[in-house]
Amino acid sequence: MTDALATVRRVRPGDWSALRGIRLEALADTPEAYGSTLADVSTWPDERWRLMAGGRANFLAEVDGRVVGMVAGGTNNEWPGTRWMYAMYVTPETRGTGVADDLVEMVSQWARDEGVGQLYLSVTATVARARAFYERMGFRLTGTTTSMSRDPGVTLVTMVRDLD
Question: 25, 98, 105, 150: which could join 2 in a potential S-S bond, CB 3.0 to 4.6 Å?
């Protein structure tokens, strides 16, 4: 880890409330960056959050016991055999401290453990800060663009990082 103050770890089933809190914060902070909306996600029942916390590869970053970031790893049905990074977020006050780097490294290790040599992501074309960060972390554009499912007017660019 690059930031001695941060702890990054996989979400455990009992972390569902913390996962919900940081996800809702992310959607309020940067709504254009996510495929879901604050209005929709805020209505999810506790049981859905419990299932998320116990299922997919979700990771939380904490500083002094406070959740300050999240990221998830998963698959993509349109790209069989690949692993993807989803739902990346770091609180404004911890940006630039290395917490985001730690989250990317954690999900990259998860992808390696899954047996793949590359990690993909889609990022909103208009969120320049995020694209610049991903480029600094070794992601490169693939040349593939798609429209966001919840808003076809939003263009997503696909990026990939070699994990070797």
Answer: 98
Let me know: does 69 contact 97? Beta carbons within 8 Å: no
- Rounded Cα gap, residues 75 and 84, in angstroms: 6
> Is 162 among the domain residues?
no
Give the count of beta carbons closer than 10 Å to the beta carbon of residue 147. 11
| Length of the chain as a residue count | 164
Q: What pTM does this model have?
A: 0.91
> Is 22 inside any structural domain?
yes
Q: Which CATH number does the domain housing residue 88 bear?
A: 3.40.630.30
**Beta strand extents in the chain (DSSP E only):** 6-10, 57-63, 66-74, 83-90, 118-124, 139-148, 151-162
Q: How far apart are CA 115 and CA 13, in angstroms?
A: 24
Range of 109's domain? 6-116
Please give the chain's pLDDT, 164 residues, in tens: 444 478 999 999 899 999 999 999 999 998 888 889 999 999 999 999 999 998 779 999 999 999 999 999 999 999 999 999 999 999 999 999 999 999 999 999 999 999 999 999 999 988 888 999 999 999 999 999 988 888 888 889 999 999 98
Contact call for residues 69 and 61 (beta carbons, < 8 A) = yes
Provide the β-strand partners of residue 140: 160
